[in-house]
């Protein structure tokens, strides 16, 4: 939930951790005015609130929560290695091998949800690099399903997407902050993966995910035909996840993110891949809490493939909870997502 909408009495649904890994508030705590002010002071923009209605609606996950947790722990262990340990090919390979096994499991699990993907839980906007990397992995994988990629190609796409920012672990930080305006982490990451005998396709994803079709990207300024298909897919997923998270933090509309990406078609993004992406990813995920143009708050209950911006919602009224199909209510619209 956007913290500006948090109220005293709400129950925290997840631990709140700052960018340095320090625990600020524990899951299960009842929020007070002072707690909310403290979180804002520490620069926390979003928190997860226990919402029984949302929990019931979010039961359909693209992958089981246990698998997501296992992947998170393994990837976190790899990412937290110091540069000297990352240079140890044998040690790094052990983590990469375990992650690779998990990726195969993810592909098998996610493929079972392929026909109902718009009504499953895929991504969770979050500033943490770990969550972002998993989001990008799953978002890229779904586009791969739509392209009917082979199992081997899906594996390389998903692993490259998960590891797209692995090079950041090898860069120095100043006061905990990473400075990499030239996006050199892409090249460091590519070299790290090649040393560990990962495929050239996976290494290219890591090296090229900040490139752009018109040559304005970084670090090499590659143009359309020189950028690998998988790199183009991951570039879209990476930009989307970052932009959606920024929209949550800045309290702006998710629709603006989509319109902004469409405006960059054939300059930053491949228009064909972007169209596939937008028509398969739920803009307003089932279970998300949304603010309407009437200032009412509602839960999203169902998405429709042909009208992803007009889902069905459950609205609280004086007569109780009412399901409203926005396709049939032209004067009613979603302004923004309050909580994913």
TrEMBL record:
Entry-linked InterPro entries: HD/PDEase_dom, HD_GYP_dom, HDIG_dom
Has keyword Hydrolase?
yes
Domain HD-GYP, by residue range, is 107-293
Fetch the Pfam families from UniProt: HD_5 (PF13487)
GO molecular function annotation: hydrolase activity
Keywords (A to Z) from UniProt? Hydrolase
Protein name, entry field: Metal dependent phosphohydrolase
